[in-house]
Amino acid sequence: MQENELYSNLMNDYNSEFDRNGVSGQRVATRLHKLSEIGRTGDGGSFRLGFSGEEQEAKKLLKSWMREAGLTVSEDEAGNVFGRMRGRSEPSSVLMSGSHLDSVPNGGHFDGPVGVISSLEIVEAWNASGFLPDFDYEVVVFSDEEGSRFQSGLTGSRAMTGKVDMDIQKGLKDSEGAAFSEVIHEVGLSASTFAEAANHNKNIKEYVEIHIEQGKVLEKENLPVGIVSGIAGPCWLSVTFTGHAGHAGNTPMTDRRDPLVAAGAFVSSIPDMPGEVSESAVATVGKLEVRPNGANVIPGTVELIVDIRDIRKEDRDVLTDRIIEEAETLAEKHDVDVEYQQNFEVSPVPVPAETKEFLRSAVNDEGIRAVEIPSGAGHDALVIGHRYPVAMLFIRNKDGISHTPEEWAGLNDIVQGIHVLKTYLEKK
């Protein structure tokens, strides 16, 4: 993608009829374009790792836009940026909306920035129309959501909600061998005060996030905006099949205890199980290690990890139990041993029915048919949702492609999402 191509492509088929009630598609496109210039890769993608100079530059630009919009700007000890608009009432609680500006290596230009720019555009629209909300409204930019630098994401939102274990955090190193403490020091933060981000009394009434859909539901339904029904929490189940290693040529087929045969049958059985439990459940084997991993050697052990997700913990737990039962059944069938351990678990966050009804009303008010979509990916809303009420909207994403330079959300869809968010907030 050439330097000015993103802005041109966004504006190319934009329907100016969506410029109403103070919302400006051109301003949204301009800001997405300016952010895309920070950390642009040779492939036309985005490279703004968490706590990098590029992420800092993007935050600096956002802070300037916040101030221009009349917001009071602050930053906490984890580098999270906040821009607050005072409402009519005395401040007691705040409605917060935003996302992140960091990216994966050579990622896209919409994952994160769409949420931040959309939240800020609400302020611009209210300023233009002279609307003042009853509540305080705060635009937020969370640090290091993607986690690509230290393989440990959602860092800013975890810090704000008191979910960071600093002993673990300080032990993290990036691919260059730089320790977490060194890296954040370079951007003006300190490991000694990082966790103090949780000490600020945010008293959040609700956190609302707009994000591109990292899937194809909206595209298949030909809809610009969708309601997130819940955010799935992952459970990682480590499974080890153990048999007997042996010579591939000298060991008769009838005298083998091959763990890879059991593991293969196990992996093949996984796709059918989630649908038997829940329409929103998924399970994936993405990592598998065979030892000794020789072309002419019967394996001795096979280790794999099953990533199990659903937006309801009880359904996810049922699916986990069924997967364990299947592993035990196949181990017995193939005369191998099996061990398993749950080594990572985050509780899912369902969106309350009342919140979804408010969202549905806002979507319908914009003349859009409302559909609900579970979010299989984690977002800052997943972390925030363990402490405060949350709501989410998805924006249509071409071909469901994300985390690559080909990632694309059309301006018509983004601006319609902004109108839905604006309507929703004004109903609160």
TrEMBL record:
Database matches in Pfam families: M20_dimer, Peptidase_M20
Which cofactor does the UniProt annotation name? Mn(2+)
List residues of the Peptidase M20 dimerisation domain. 233-334
Which Gene3D superfamilies has this protein been placed in?
3.30.70.360, Zn peptidases
Q: Does the keyword Manganese apply?
A: yes
Q: How does it assemble?
A: Homodimer.
What is this protein's record name? Allantoate deiminase
